[in-house]
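histidine kinase
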Amino acid sequence: TEKFLLQSEKLLIAGQLAAGIAHEVRNPLTAIKGFLQLLEHNFKDDKSYFEIICSEINRIETILSELLTLAKPKNMEYKQNDIRQLLEETITLLDTEALMNSVEIKTLYDAELPELLCDENQLKQVFINFIKNSIEAMPNGGSITVEAKQQESNYLQLRFIDTGCGIPEDLLKKIEEPFFTTKEKGTGLGLMISKQIIENHHGRIQYRSTGNGTMVELTLPVNHIDSIKPPRHEHLPQYRLA
Ligand code: ADP
Ligand code: MG
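Tokens:
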């Protein structure tokens, strides 16, 4: 069995590769974009060529920046975080976008929530991906309910429930695949990246969807490092080496 990589290890390697490539490609792309802008006046006869090139470069940039948020363990910083605060900060970030799309964001939190050992930025990225998907699923407005509650003694359960278009059952199994998107301007990377980040936190994501909307349920162990951290030194028996 040692010959075979675990699915999670494969994902990790793929993620690191993707992030590495994204980093390498971004520099030359920035240069191309800069020089292209200098050439803008040369396109005077046909501006639409210039616009197509620019919009395609912007699209590549979007894909690269999404790939760059892929979990890179070296950059991960696990700290105790107030989950309520992380959620509130994410919602504040998306307030304007929600408002512009007539989407109301409601929250429902347990009065007492345990602290969560997590990488703040990565987790916020996951919340942003879910909430943005919900907003995009409601072109005529609607609501998103964000719930947070404690489950058993050491799990947090978060839910993002929207009143959007829903996901047809045959597509549900594909939504976490890289580049799977039903949107004209989508990258199809948001949920793949979210899956990767949540796996790094030893949690899991479940999607439930009907024609009336979608519920994304996130279950996270409060202190996942505990299970893999070696025992504290003072609890070790006093063996002498050699
Ligand atoms: P993108 O948003 O760029 O398309 P994602 O990985 O975030 O990529 O999502 C993949 C696909 O899953 C979306 O294109 C959409 O079809 C579907 N999806 C995800 N979340 C929702 C949601 N809340 N409601 C409806 N469809 C969704
Ligand atoms: Mg998305």
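The CA atoms of residues 48 and 54 lie 10 Å apart.
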